[in-house]
Amino acid sequence: MAHSREQHKEHKHSSNKKKRKRDEHHPHGSKSKKQRPAVLESQSHRSREPASVGSSCPFYLQKSSLYLPLSPISYSYPLQGICAEHLSPLILTYYPPFHGVIISYSNPTLSENPPRDSDDTKGPVLAKSVDEYAASFVWVTADFLIFKPQRNQWIQGWVNLQSEGHIGLVCWNLFNASIERKRLPKEWKWVGGKAKRRADSENGTDEGDGEAEGYYVDGSGEKVEGLVEFKVRDCETVRERDKGFLSIVGTLRGGDESNTHVS
Length: 263
Hints:
The longest helix has 24 residues, at 2-25. The protein has 263 residues and is an alpha+beta fold. It has three helices and 14 strands.
């Protein structure tokens, strides 16, 4: 029995010794439990200014850095590969870290660390490989043109849809906007159904059945169409899989309920 106890103690001591060696070799635990590095990591924006002079401009230029994975297939042309895989698919989509829609990007560069104004980007750039992951990680810095409308900002849009409940507009031929009827000027009236057909027949523009169609007329009795300037009330974002889209909610009731209408 005494001999058996000594063997058991020796086996236990040997097991504890092996365990300590494993802990010293992997101080943070098993590799399989490590969290995968973030695919996209945004640095604070180094510059942010309107793309053109005037506070009414919703376009901004900003220089930002992203921490991105570089696929092995792109090792021969890393800059072109990382732009094609990560940056170009973001164009014309809402990107939450930038709080706006990316219109374009320019001057992309690679670096080992988030660059600073005093950094010299010349010379080779070493990407970081993490454990057994196939992709390497590198910082990408570029100048981004962002569409970021602000509340109470006045912008313009072309009327492309009118219904009794709202009017729809297209801004810069890219972004949709809508204005509810309760936020249209009080003097605007809806003309639809029989009234529309009567007005169209008087003007010689009757196109048949118009029960479900109609349009608004302003205080002067002129049909609302063409380019309309309105105030941004809010912006709504919708995400579909890995892409996001922006929709603008507007109003034509400002402080003095004034609006600009151009046919």
